[in-house]
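Inverse folding, one chain.
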């Protein structure tokens, strides 16, 4: 049984780095979401190409209906995605849950950036530059 991974317009990255096992990535061109987000056609083209680059199959239609169809086609009851704080995302997740699917958010690994910066280089520059920049007129 494959997991269905919904790649939406706020997460168009290759899911294989975050998900182990057998999965099917899906990107849905949903006109209602397109109108809600008020995106340009150029942005839409970018999203489709990014979805294809991430290995997703691209469908057009109502997101819930498409995800339901793809899940049933692959015999899956699990649909997963990268969470985003948008009302439409939660509405879709709730609707899929109401239809009997298990909606599972993908937890991305957190990371701490390396904070070992060479601040001395900046301050050497700043000490020379501030003399000319902070002169009273």
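Residues assigned per position:
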């Amino acid at each position: 049984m494959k997991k269905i991974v919904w790649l939406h317009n706020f997460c168009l990255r290759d899911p294989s780095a975050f998900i182990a096992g057998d999965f099917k990535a899906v990107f849905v061109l949903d006109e209602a979401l397109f109108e809600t987000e008020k995106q340009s056609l150029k942005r839409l083209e970018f999203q489709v190409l990014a979805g294809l680059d991430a290995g997703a199959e691209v469908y057009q239609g109502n997101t819930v209906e498409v995800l339901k169809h793809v899940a049933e086609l692959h015999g899956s009851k699990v649909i997963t995605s990268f969470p985003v704080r948008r009302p439409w995302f939660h509405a879709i997740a709730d609707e899929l849950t109401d239809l009997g699917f298990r909606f599972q958010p993908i937890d991305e690994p957190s990371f701490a950036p390396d904070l070992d910066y060479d601040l001395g280089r900046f301050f050497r520059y700043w000490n020379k530059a501030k003399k000319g920049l902070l002169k009273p007129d």
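The beta strands are 3-6, 23-29, 57-60, 78-81, 102-105. DSSP finds five helices and five strands in the chain.
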